[in-house]
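User: two proteins, same treatment. go.

Assistant:
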Amino acid sequence: MLSLKRVQDADLLRQLLELVKQSRGVEAEVVAHIGEVELRRLYAQEACSSMFEYCRRILGMRIVTARAGQLRRTAAELEVTTFGVSC
């Protein structure tokens, strides 16, 4: 990990903002992949009874992260069902 002690304040703030933006993009991709794996029930290939179990046991996610993925997937499904939005 690089040392941040010598980074100027404005640069540090700019870099942090950019990292958060990148993180959100990656998080969105992870949630999309979780949703597709769940839809295809691919977690069963790893002897998991649910996507939550797969996230915890195989992916090593914390409970909060695994639950958040489930909630986001459910929200996306509700949006499609309620508003007819296709992903």
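Protein 2:
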Amino acid sequence: MTSSVCYDVIRIGSYHVANIYKPPSENTNTLPALPHPSLLVGDFNSHHPDWGYQEPDEDGEMLQDWASGNDYHLIHDSKQRGTFHSARWKCDYSPGLCWVSSVNGRPQPASCTVLKDFPVFCCMTMEHFHQLHSTMLIVI
């Protein structure tokens, strides 16, 4: 297993899977370069129309360029609810994203479903707690 401040990588079968947290304004050069097939999932803190925002921000443009340059494809269904609900703006957004690599020039078949009201419990106390981000179910 490889770890850094922004991501953890595990291997499941032939897949390398990275769970990512990219802080706002963090350069995408810190994202892992993984062998294919691979899956990157997590909070990318970036805006782009491809994942439901009205306008791209600099982070979204950099992430989209990084994904294209590294042969990753976004698994996103704009009909689903967002992965984060902003109480301030009273709207759903999708900073949580799922990217799959290509093999032989084709994206890996995958789906991503944003789960509604998925219960989350503290392991120590078994008490339910409120999470800000929705849980994503990824099937590859």
